[in-house]
Amino acid sequence: MTIERLISRSTPPLQPSDTVEHALGLMMEVQVRHLPVVDTEAHLLGVISEDQLLDASGPDAPVRDLLGPRALSAMPDTHVFDVTKMIVQHDLTTVPVANEDGHYIGLVRRHDIFEQFARMLSTQEAGAILAIEVDPRDYSLSQLVYTIESNDVKILSIATEMPEESGGAIRITLKLNVTETSRIRHMLEHHGYHVVAAFSDERDDEDIRMRIEEFMRYLEV
């Protein structure tokens, strides 16, 4: 999916003439560490970070003096995975969204991206979570899905993490529509999958958040 429906227009961008003091106050008010800067014609000029503001010469310095040479941004039709990679690579709390002409549209918050991943991974649905590992040579997503769903269990979401080094195992997190997993675990082990852990509903949110953070770190590679 694209980021178009995640764009927020409620947070006002900064103007080049705004002071460091004003920018810091606005960041504190909207609880972010990055804000876009646009000119009077709503053309995106760049992004200002809290660290840049804190290193400025003084509270009355204009933010135009802190702008870099390149305006980092995404377009409305950018996929959420690509924006996530941008957020991780540049440690951003917001990403400005602009059209092909550089006209500012709005911004996407890191928090909203995180919530979108939570929806994609069915964190609010009842069910158990299985964490499994498999050798890359034996990995087949279609076979895994068939093995599970042929046993009257539905997969609500799948998150796959490739090995970080040669010879490592592929790690797979499955959200299922059942709470009892003993039969599924036994069946997966029989088919060559190593079941690392199983989580009940009480651990759903915690584990999914951990897996999302691991996935976002993986995108940085």
What would you say this structure looks like, in words?
This protein is α+β, with helices and mostly antiparallel strands. It has 2 domains: 4-117, CBS-domain; 121-219, ACT domain (Alpha-Beta Plaits). Helix content is 33%, strand content 22%. It is built from 7 helices and 8 strands, in the order αββααββαβαββαβα. The strands form 3 sheets. It has a 4-stranded antiparallel sheet, sandwiched between helices. A two-stranded antiparallel sheet has the order 1-2. The longest helix has 16 residues, at 204-219. The model has no long low-confidence stretch (mean pLDDT 87).
Top keywords for this entry?
221 residues; alpha+beta; CBS-domain; Alpha-Beta Plaits; 2 domains; two-stranded antiparallel sheet; 8 strands
Rg, nearest Å: 22 Å
CATH class of the largest domain: Alpha Beta
Strand order of the biggest β-sheet: 6-7-5-8
Q: Note the gap between the termini.
A: 21 Å
Question: How many individual helices?
Answer: 7
- For the secondary structure, the number of strands is 8
Compute the average pLDDT: 87
Query: In the CATH hierarchy, what is the architecture of the largest domain at level 2?
Result: Roll
- How would you classify the helix and strand content by structural class? alpha+beta
Helicity, in percent? 25-40%
CATH topology-level fold name of the largest domain: CBS-domain
Query: What profile does the largest beta sheet have?
Result: 4 strands, antiparallel
Outline type: elongated
What is the H/E string? HEEHHEEHEHEEHEH
Strand content: 15-25%
Low-pLDDT segments: none
Question: What's the name of the CATH homologous superfamily of the largest domain?
Answer: CBS-domain
